[in-house]
Known about the structure:
8 strands, alpha+beta
Amino acid sequence: MAILESLSTAGLVVIKNRKLLLAFSKNKNAWYLPGGKTDPGETSRNALVREINEELNIVVDADDLRYYTHISVQAFGEKVNTIMEQDCFLYDLRQDPKPAAEIEGLNYFDTTTYSIEPAQVPGVIMVMQQLKHDGLID
């Protein structure tokens, strides 16, 4: 039996005009939820505040993050038996994000525009399906 590895992460869910904000990772060559891995002993909320500051050059108040959902899915671009465990938080942007670190670009997607991207990230698809089911995106 294969041993599963767990990857703890946090993702930022920003919706504008019924579309989801995604960040293009130069390292993985794909569009992801902004956010990233949690450090040992760090909460997903605190990890998200740190990662968003690093990736988007904005300061997020942890108290303004609203828990949305948790997803468990095969981690894109990782070893086959690596499962991403991601806490996702809704957030209303008050500043214009500016890509930094490994982030090359930012864009808003609905399910149709994301479906034609060459790289489909399972975690993004899962979150988008939930958002569409909840009537938050198209």
